[in-house]
Amino acid sequence: MHQFHYSGPDLHCESVDLAAVAKLYGTPTYVYSAGTMADNYRRLRQGFAALDPQVCYAVKANSNLAVLRHFANLGAGFDLVSGGEIRRVLAAGANLRTSVFAGVGKTEEEIRLALENGIFALHVESEPELARINHVAGQLGVQAPIAFRINPDVDAGTHAKITTGKADNKFGIPLRQATAAYEAAAKLKHIAIRGVQMHIGSQLTEAGPFAAATEKVGALAAQLKANHGITYFSIGGGLGIVYQDALASGAAAWWEALPPERRPLTPEAYGAALTPFLAPLGLKVLLEPGRFLTGNAGVLLARVEHLKRGAGRNFLIVDAAMNDLVRPAMYDSYHEIVPLHRDSSRRALVADIVGPVCETGDCFARDRSIQEVGEGELVALLSAGAYGFAMASRYNTRALPAEVLVQGSMFELVNARETFDRVIALEKIPAFLK
Ligand SMILES: *Cc1c(COP(=O)(O)O)cnc(C)c1O
Fold first, then answer.
1. Strands 284-287 and 298-309: what pairing?
2. 358 among known catalytic residues
3. Which ligand 1 atom sits nearest the alpha carbon of residue 102?
4. Ligand 1 center to residue 201 CA distance, Å?
5. 0.85 cut: is pTM over it?
């Protein structure tokens, strides 16, 4: 459920008319709903209420400072994958006491930054990495709190580029090597064993793979609790969202009308499926959701440049492009695209909805049916709050888009549109070319 809806003919985010946002800040612009993020956060915690979980928001999904501050205010910690993300959380006014630091290639400098700022734990993906962490902790004269990321070899049944829990992925250490890895860690002077972690992939819409992985790693967790006194089990992120019927899925009635077997996994069902494996362990449970918290809480506003009627194919050319939202080009992903102003007197149009970038892959949707919209009119690409701005680039020397946060009837620019001067600020012509 989310808070993007038509009020009369006009698309709103909470109580804010999105056309007003586009008028004030231009396009392309990301707009986020603080209320939707808060609802998602509370529903997820509620789904696991019996376990009182610690939610560590996966910053990589949407790392805007305002979004981070919002989640910190709600009580979340953070799942971090770089020194830059650590600095963002600190810049947002939060601390690292309930945050974890993951990733397969942490540098010494990043490890130092995490330890100096009192990170809850580092999630370790290999034995060479463990040695590096032990070394840095020794230099600082501290013990580094750690958990190993275990790869349970479970197929998440999601897109190949976002599957992370199979034996042939680069992530984590294999289940059968886990016991030896923990024994090695126990011998290191500057390592404090704290927990166990897994993360099997992203955009999962069924409970089966989560349950299979939790059962496998749960059995290990019980042993580790007995042998090494671990205190927590992080079950990772990966809970999926609705992309196909994004607008309709804002209403509770849409979910209730679906037969249970066709209903995408809800946070309530996710919690209910995993709690039976987790509760008997008596460990603190960490959740690391990214997409679920922010994905359906954001849209990308764009303006129509032209409707180009080709031979047998129409192209709706908009001012947003693959550099602003790369998911369709990168993951073949679906985003629902709707007009900001609904007009029942207009005909439907079937078109490819594309950006202006010089790549055939710069296509948001093929053969999409949409109400006829003309030059200057506005559209919204839905479910763009996660892995949207966070993956944006300046390809084709397009400046990064603006970001706006809405709460109720209030809205504010939380990231100004980049200027051309900023884009080229660090570039220079070398003396030998002058
Ligand atoms: C990316 C990632 C997440 C978040 O994944 P979502 O699918 O956005 O929930 C959580 N944990 C780890 C270790 C990750 O790499």
1. unpaired
2. yes
3. 13
4. 7
5. yes
